[in-house]
Specification:
By secondary structure, the chain is of the alpha+beta class. The protein contains 17 helices and 19 strands.
Length: 638
């Protein structure tokens, strides 16, 4: 099937405004008749629920955390992009659009990216109005810093806690809507199935994580804003609860999964320090504003303390390889460059899987107190984890799984191929192509939640009758029985391995074979190993505790069961995409100097996969990508 992204036609700078005008509206007094379910209360879901509640829809919002404001967005450190051009350094909507398309290695839809760049400026105004304490310069204007893949400074930030401050802004809007009875919150509630009636999304099945009760909720539309799936690698920078469950359940009910092989490995993380570790820590990309990446030129120096290696014996490899962007090369490129140095036996630290990120030059230039002002909390965090003072010796960093560019397929209206199912934020595939630029995820989540969905959902709801299907429909009972059936099965296995042991095994297969570098052989190896681990899971996992109580073993087992199915689709996507682009690096497709080699003739499309059953190959549907406003070019940061 050739998929239609329903992109409006006409001059790109007018597409969104024209589309907003062309879409149908819901009369204010009719809005309260529609019930909208929002799963996820991070920046995308929180912003959506607050905005739709404020508009007058009857909204119910769900999350598995104990409070909506603890969604994983809270972890975001570095900042949020917008094309305000406050520093007067040449930024514009067009430049943000262009950087994002190029940064994504020309694998995203032009119109969606244009809209993102256009509304980026509204986001900053909205957040400032909510009281988000963005950093300001000496004169009191909002300050900006630089992030990877851009030569302008367009990143707004609140020290190293931008996500937390933005989420508090969204949460305050949400709390107002809750108080006004426009939104009902369901914390500690996990969505375990999507209910589809006659091909249309009509509700969800959830488990109350406190009582274990299985409940049905109906809605006229369902919005998934359930975040990303890189915990398929087990070790990642994501919170441990982040899962593919909601998206995967939707996939199994007919929603297409787009570009699942596009995963982002972030270059700036604290290296893994042992086998028992269950989480990796990100050191924000903002640190590459002032930090310089290097490794010893000679392998024999790798065991020496960094400060004893003279300047002449250091290889500032990013500055050498990419002189125009230097340490601010985009993430996929910086990650691969770090791996290349370590593969060349010039890595540092335990296991030699690390490179230095050094502040000595910046401290010499602006002083330690300025560096402390800019990144103080990140340096503190680094010291707490490594017991090393990064003001005195360079940090050690190594790439780690961080973000999912792939996700559920959506059209320009953020609606999936299942009518009534909308997908926002990291959970959809929409704007980042094959590689996301730093500080663009927060921008996308808030764009989707505050500015896109309030318009596009109206167009859908205006064309249906509210409340035609409720939880009395037999599909709800069927779904609840299936969910209960899986829980009973998991608890009855009583095998010998823990959920985390098996998750670690899956993670290691994915990291080794479907990680920073992938090949035909490694992907086939993963496709052999994943079903073996899945079989072992269903025969030998030990899930302790009872179903009718708080049971994190059971929660984790359910999430791993979904990762074990999803991993196969992700690997299949990576195997079919015979090119290298962005975060998807196929070793067979590289230039002589190790850069990614795209195949525009054969792969300029979104690959959207339809689930066909566990023992059947998924079916590929293509959405061709057209580039009318940017020239398809070899991506170069040299
Ligand atoms: C350490 C770190 C730092 C980052 N820093 C930046 C940065 O500086 N700038 C930037 O732009 N991006 C950054 N990112 C990326 C960015 O934070 C995320 O992509 C973004 O916050 C995702 O927002 P979201 O609303 O889509 O999902 P999330 O914030 O992940 O929210 C998901 C929501 O869905 C709910 N949920 C999920 N599954 C279910 C289910 N089955 N049932 C019920 N509820 C469910 C969760 O409870 C949660 O409420 C960072 C990411 C990490 C890990």
């Amino acid at each position: 099937m050739i998929l239609d992204g329903k992109t409006p036609t006409g001059p790109i700078e007018k597409t969104w405004d024209k589309h907003c005008f062309d879409m149908k509206l819901v009369n204010p007094s009719n809005k309260r008749k529609f019930k909208v379910l929002v799963v996820g209360t991070g920046l995308a879901g929180g912003a959506a629920a607050a905005s739709l509640g404020e508009l007058g829809y009857n909204v119910e919002a769900f999350c598995y955390q104990d409070s909506a404001r603890r969604a994983h967005s809270i972890a975001a450190q570095g900042g949020i992009n917008a094309a305000k051009n406050y520093p007067n350094d040449g930024d514009s909507i067009y430049r943000l659009f262009y950087d994002t398309i190029k940064g994504g290695d020309f694998r995203a839809r032009e119109a969606d990216v244009w809209r993102l760049a256009q509304v980026s400026n509204n986001i900053i105004d909205q957040c400032v109005a909510q009281g988000v304490p963005f950093a300001r310069d000496y004169a009191g204007y909002l300050d900006n810093r630089s992030f990877g893949g851009a030569q302008v400074s367009r990143t707004f930030y609140a020290r190293g806690q931008t996500g937390q401050q933005l989420l508090l802004g969204a949460y305050s809007a949400l709390s107002r809507a809750v108080k006004n009875k426009q939104v009902k919150l369901h914390p500690r509630t996990e969505m375990l199935d999507l209910v589809v009636v006659d091909g249309v999304a009509k509700g969800i099945t959830v488990r109350n994580l406190i009582t274990g009760q299985i409940e049905s909720h109906w809605g006229d539309a369902v919005i998934l804003a359930t975040g990303g799936f890189v915990n398929v690698f087990y070790l990642s920078t994501n919170a441990m609860g982040c899962s593919v469950t909601a998206a995967w359940k939707a996939t199994k009910k007919g929603a297409f999964m787009a570009n699942p092989c596009y995963t982002q490995i972030h270059p700036t993380c604290i290296p893994q320090h042992g086998d028992k570790q269950s989480k990796l820590t990100l050191m924000s990309e903002s640190l590459r504003n002032d930090g310089r990446c290097w490794v010893p030129k000679n392998a024999k120096d790798c065991d020496k303390p960094a400060n004893e290696i003279p300047e002449a014996d250091r290889d500032y490899y990013l500055e050498r390889k990419y002189p125009s962007f230097g340490n601010l090369a985009p993430r996929d490129i910086a990650s691969r460059a770090a791996k290349e140095q370590c593969d060349d036996n010039r890595g540092v630290g335990p296991g030699k899987r690390g490179v230095y990120l050094d502040y000595a030059t910046a401290i010499g230039r602006v002083g330690e107190s300025t560096i402390k002002e800019r990144y103080g909390n990140l340096f503190e965090m680094y010291e707490k984890i490594t017991d090393e003072n990064a003001y005195k010796q360079p940090m050690r960093i190594y790439p780690a799984p961080h973000y999912a560019m792939g996700g559920l397929w959506v059209d320009y209206n953020c609606m999936s191929n299942v009518p009534g199912l909308f997908v926002l934020g990291e959970a959809n595939f929409s704007v980042h192509g094959a590689n996301r630029l730093g500080a663009s995820a927060l921008m996308q989540g808030l764009a989707d939640g505050y500015f896109v969905i309030p318009n596009t959902i109206a167009n859908y709801l205006a064309q249906i009758t509210p409340g035609t299907v409720t939880d009395e429909h037999p599909e709800f009972k069927k779904s609840a029985e299936e969910v209960q059936g899986q829980i009973d099965k998991l608890l009855s296995i009583k095998g010998k391995k823990t959920v985390s042991e098996l998750h670690r095994e899956l993670g290691s297969v994915m990291w080794e074979n479907v990680g920073m570098a992938r090949s035909d052989a490694s992907l086939k190896e993963a496709l052999k190993r994943i079903p073996e681990i899945r079989d072992e899971f269903w025969n030998n996992v030990n899930v302790t505790g009872e179903p009718g109580e708080i049971n994190q073993q059971l929660e984790n087992a359910g999430r791993l069961a979904d990762f074990l199915e999803f991993a196969e689709m992700m690997t299949t996507d990576a195997l079919h995409r015979e090119e290298s682009c962005g975060g998807h690096f196929r070793t067979e497709h590289q230039t002589e100097d190790g850069e990614a080699m795209r195949d525009d003739e054969n792969f300029t499309y979104v690959g959207a996969w339809e689930y066909k059953g566990l023992d059947k190959a998924p079916e590929l549907h293509k959405e061709p990508l057209k580039f009318e406003n940017v020239h398809l070019a070899v991506r170069s940061y040299k």
